[in-house]
Write a structure and sequence with these properties.
With 211 residues, the protein is of the alpha/beta class. The protein is 31% helix and 25% strand. It has seven helices and seven strands. Strands 1, 2, 3, 4, 5, 6 and 7 form a seven-stranded mixed sheet that branches. Strand 3 and strand 4 form a beta hairpin. Helix 3 packs antiparallel against helix 4. The protein is globular, with a radius of gyration of 17 Å.
Length: 211
């Protein structure tokens, strides 16, 4: 029987995918993102998600593998994950009082069935005009590390966000409507009531940023 596999080590993506009430396994992808200077962020994030899915699909050719990646775009430039807290501070300083785009790509691969598809969900996030002191307090939580753009909207970083336009789950890291659509197109039924899910918003800070 074909198994759905999440090619990610992100606990956030695992938690979000579980909201679709699907049975799935988690496998760590071997692919590591290497941003390319000058390449549009939307194209890069789509490639990252595909390569993550492919890296697991070659090991599980009969299963349906889901890969995902998230990047921040500011002034046409890609902001990925900070390498350390100093880098996180620099990113948050750039984002303060401004809007930016969050792009999350979702890819599906199944080698035996010849399935390979990918799509990108984008949202716009407006940050509060926070000061250096607020950034310092947030950095002490170390929540910035491992997060695109150096903040976690579902965690303490939500206090730095003013509002957003788009799918909240895309900002967290896995746009559930898009995931469900791709799964159904691949012949994998999704039974969960998406309208109810997006109405109840059962995830930290989701209700606070309903758009």
């Amino acid at each position: 029987m074909q198994q759905l596999i999440l090619a990610s080590t992100s606990p956030r993506r695992r938690e979000l995918l579980a909201l679709l009430e699907e049975s799935f396994e988690v496998c760590a992808p071997s692919f590591e993102e290497q941003p390319v200077s000058g390449s549009p962020p939307v194209e890069q994030v789509r490639r990252f998600a595909l390569e993550k899915a492919r890296s697991v699909a070659v090991e599980r050719p009969g299963d349906l593998v889901l890969g995902s990646d998230t990047v921040i775009e500011l002034d046409g430039r890609l902001l990925g994950k900070p390498v350390d807290l100093e880098d996180a501070k620099a990113m948050l300083t750039q984002l303060a009082g401004r809007s930016h785009q969050v792009h999350t790509a979702v890819a599906l691969c199944c080698i035996e069935q010849g399935i390979e598809s990918a799509a990108v969900e984008s949202a716009t996030v407006w940050m509060k005009p926070y000061q250096e002191e607020e950034v310092g307090r947030y950095l002490k939580t170390t929540e910035s590390l491992g997060k695109a753009g150096a903040y976690s909207i579902q965690g303490d970083g939500g206090a730095l966000v003013s509002h957003l336009k788009g799918d909240y789950t895309a900002v967290v890291g896995l746009p559930l409507r898009l995931v469900a659509s791709l799964l159904r197109k691949a012949g994998h039924p999704v039974a969960v009531d998406l309208h109810r899910l997006y109405h109840t918003r059962p995830y930290p800070n989701w209700a606070a940023f309903a758009s």
